[in-house]
Amino acid sequence: MRKIIGLFLSFIFTMSTVSAESLTKTIKSLGINNSAISVSVKDTASKNSVFSLNERVPRQPASTLKLVTSSAAVDMLGADYTFKTSLYKSTNNDLYLKLSGDPLLATSDLEKLIETAKSKNIAPKTFYVDESIFDNVEWGEGWQWDDDMNPLMPKFSAYNINKNLIKIDVTPTGNNVAAKLTVKPFYPLTFMNLVVTDLTVPTNIKVEKNTTIAANMLNVSGSVSKISSVMLPVANPKMNFILRLEDAIRSKKFEYFAQIKNAKLPENNVYHVDTIEHDFGTVLTPILKNSNNLAAESLFKYAGAVWSSSQGSLSNSLAMLDEYLKRVNLNSDDIKIVDGSGVSKNNLMTSDFMTDFLVYKASNEDFESFKQYLPKPGEGTLKNRMLYFKDSLRAKTGTLSDTSAIAGYITTRRGKVYAFDIMINDAKTSPADKKNIEEQILRNVYLNY
Which pTM was predicted? Predict the structure, then answer.
């Protein structure tokens, strides 16, 4: 009997060695310097590492960081948590709109709140907005200054509305004549309109700052052959929010014409009018499937506010995260986290830490629901990637300049489930080549483990 067990263990060891050698050979054949890549693969059942390369080297995790920060936030707030934006009336006949930093709040939601107030015949003396849920820091630590025109990285605050984006419609006019620019909804912008109507070439529009003329001047250049749109992040979320609230008041013909002011909701002598809610499901989907940075930062910051029973701030969120990691016995000595989304290049993580975290999640009772929020091939950020694996893969991607990462779970053709993390920090390899390297590594895991 001992001999049989010994032979079996020897067989398993041989298979494992062959698999590791095959994966090592695959990585070497992909034309990337091994020092630029970290890989960790762990068995979710045994929790053992089955392959590792530079697994303790801190690298930029990019948006794979959202796996950790969103999980800590959900753990803090509870799975039945909802973002609430509530309208209250005081006994002094004032209205208070209490904000929660809801990343999914839209103008239509404000219209619903105003419609309810109108239906209750409320005619306020003063309309206040309570912004106290967050501090006034609107961008993450280490975010790149030249990304402030990137619609994927808008500012985030208590005043989140319409994803903090505005749309510029570019309409062709006569051939070789300047195009027409329209901002929808209205937001004050100053343009240098250099877009020319050219019906003979594909539309190509570029928007960039022109600070040599004025701080808020934008150059809009290129050519347009058909009606096109460009999305831009707003520079002043508070101003944008107040404009949208005023739009809602006008559209519902609500009797209020004075200035909208700021004040904290009184603790007493106020009565609930109406509330807009968005639950975790509708918030986690854009975070984990579509890598929405605004939603990730807002959720992380709000969890910090609840944890501290005070104002949302990065320091409170990081303290909340540190407590979470200690409670689930994850060693964070080799990592550094400075935001909730992974946008900052100051974030550092090891592949070993990420797979330890994923193995922990796999043993958690909420694992199946957590896994369902991760995109599978053909969904979200994997819409055009990893199609070879079909339903055998659930993973979160991450991309920054010179960086590509992917982390998640793979079920191999033998039916084994592995947690994996791949991080590539390499300036010489193209983004497409980095993604191809990731897929080739995972194909090897799928076929040989």
Answer: 0.92
